[in-house]
Specification:
Tetracycline Repressor, domain 2
């Protein structure tokens, strides 16, 4: 394998680790397995990431950044907060397909890991999702599109709906699952001013 520059090697290691974590889970994946899959030795891996935790943290932060960037791009031309949520729901299945392995990594660690650093970065991820949706809901309340309600409660309804849809569709495919757009419509019906 050709020698890569540091940024390219980090990207390669993140991509390889994502596939390994998605396939075997965080706890069962070793840095040795990741290094071998990347065609390098463990000492080279450790030049770029000090631990398996650091790789997981990098993956999770990348998912957070990509997801939020994608959602901001989707909603930026839309002025109505209800329509913004509908557009995210409409695009969510294709977003999941594109980032399926990375979401499998997060979901697996969420349900199995007891590692403090792993759990801390997962909390960070979900706080960012909460903040995003809370902002949309607060805007809708201010504009009287939504009735006065606790924005965090609605945010977590949206997150839980997306999480449930993702867990089933990514891990039990093919499987008849609920329509995420219909589920968001159900939530929006309860928000109408």
């Amino acid at each position: 394998m050709p020698r890569l520059k540091a940024p390219q090697r980090r990207e390669q290691l993140i991509a390889v680790a994502t596939k390994q974590f998605a396939k075997y889970g965080y706890d069962a994946t070793t840095t040795d397995t990741i290094a071998k899959s990347a065609g390098i030795t463990e000492p080279i891996l450790y030049r770029h990431f000090g631990s398996k935790q650091e790789l997981f943290i990098a993956i999770t932060r990348a998912v957070s950044q990509q997801t939020l960037r994608h959602w901001h791009e989707l909603i930026s031309p839309i002025d109505d907060p209800a329509q913004q949520l509908r557009e995210i729901a409409r695009q969510f299945p294709s977003h999941l397909k594109e980032m399926g392995d990375a979401y499998r990594v997060i979901h697996n660690a969420l349900t199995t890991s007891r590692d403090r650093k792993v759990l801390a970065v997962l909390r960070e991820h979900y706080h960012q999702m909460e903040a995003f949706f809370t902002g949309v809901i607060e805007t809708g309340i201010k504009r009287k599109v939504f009735r006065p309600i606790q924005p965090k409660t609605v945010s977590w309804s949206l997150i839980s709906t997306g999480l449930g849809f993702a867990l089933v569709s990514l891990n039990l495919s093919p499987f008849e699952t609920f329509d995420v757009e219909d589920a968001i419509e159900f939530v929006l019906a309860g928000l109408k001013a």
